[in-house]
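User: Okay, second chain of the day. Same drill as before: sequence in, structure tokens out.
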Amino acid sequence: MKTDWNPILRTEFEKPYWHSLQQFVHQERTNHEVYPPDDQVFAALHLTPYETVRVLILGQDPYHGPGQAHGLCFSVAHGVPIPPSLKNIYKEREADLGLPAPDHGSLIDWAKQGVLLLNTTLTVRARQAASHQNQGWERFTDEVIQAVSAKDEHVVFVLWGAAAGKKRELINTDKHTIVASPHPSPLSAHRGFFGSRPFSTINEALAGSGQEPIDWQISET
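Assistant: Same drill. Structure tokens below.
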């Protein structure tokens, strides 16, 4: 991990659970198709160095369809059809900020501004949602969340849905802001994600701590 995350997380790589997890993922890749590709598993940490993190958006599993997952929660690579949850995120962004949906689903523009797009599980077997949960990834990503919570600078944590909401206990709410709502999935977005105005709320929280807002625009292909 060739970023400033390495010294922060290095001790995790020496623990028994980490070795068991890597053996599990290796075995899965040997016998099954696994997403994202091996060189993209830690893309969120590579694209958003620890020092730059101002916002953390928390997802759960990587997408499990062919070609979708590329290491950033809710995001897909250029040329991949936009998944339903991301379509709803774009709808709410337009309602909140007046920004029309781009022609692709890559959120790399956000990641490069200090928005850490972190899934709690970093790999998944093709076409089998939740297949790599409870193997050790959650322990590792809990450490990532707690490391961000330990930053001196104010950070906005975005918790969409019940699974993300359970991570609230890892966050120092005396120092940081939590923006929470139902998940943007079509199964739950109508229960309160739509109308929650997360993007302007995040920027208001950043401005309140003297930080620059996030430019939520996304470059066209």
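The chain is about 35% helix and 10% strand.

User: Thanks, on to the next one.
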